[in-house]
Amino acid sequence: xxxxxxxxxxxxxxxxxxxxxxxxxxxxxxxxxxxxxxxxxxxxxxxxxxxxxxxxxxxxxxxxxxxxxxxxxxxxxxxxxxxxxxxxxxxxxxxxxxxxxxxxxxxxxxxxxxxxxxxxxxxxxxxxxxxxxxxxxxxxxxxxxxxxxxxxxxxxxxxxxxxxxxxxxxxxxxxxxxxxxxxxxxxxxxxxxxxxxxxxxxxxxxxxxxxxxxxxxxxxxxxxxx
Length: 226
Ligand code: CDP
Prior knowledge:
Strand content: 15-25%
Number of strands: 8
CATH class: Alpha Beta
Largest sheet: 5 strands, parallel
Number of helices: 10
Low-confidence stretches: none
Order of helices and strands: EHEHHEEEHHHEHEHHEH
Mean pLDDT: 96
Radius of gyration: 17 Å
CATH topology: Rossmann fold
Shape: globular
Number of domains: 1
Structural class: alpha/beta
Bound molecules: cytidine-5'-diphosphate
Strand order of the largest sheet: 2-6-1-7-8
Helix content: 40-55%
């Protein structure tokens, strides 16, 4: 089966399994997987550690904008890095999740991340997940998916994922975080989370990963003859 050189854009609400699905797609088709949310989380960690955001989520936008000029945030072998420091574990914590949506609503932060993401688009054969990939980052992506699931299922999945990594979280706190992020992400002015007109909706509330893959392969076969 020959998969064409395409970009697959996956957007959707928090914890709908976008990144798990994207990783499996990348593995199956030998595509490069890119997690755009990791860059927003990386900027958030940087902002927290350098005092550009406080606990009330007030942001020193001009200070952060200036500091971004020298921020070496990138993907490497172990995931996401600032310089040669792997930040993969820190950026997945609930304390970063609690601040990432306000940071991601800052237009200067979006411009910083978009520039990095678009560089990858030159090479095709990528699958990227996020909130605005099909609408803003790659509006010409050949295949766009929009993922959703019930809030209860999403909170359960995310809490299980965090507990497996050793973070002791309460379902209520995870649920609250998901709902707050969904609200901020959908209502911000710059590139809000919204389904692209040509995106295909996948509600995976009651689907296994195998079922999702069968669903996707049918779409690929119909659209690209592969
Ligand atoms: O994995 P999860 O769905 O919880 O979120 P994520 O993909 O790691 O993204 C974390 C946050 O980054 C989101 O809640 C958004 O605020 C922001 N984000 C964004 O604004 N645009 C993107 N393309 C990706 C993430």
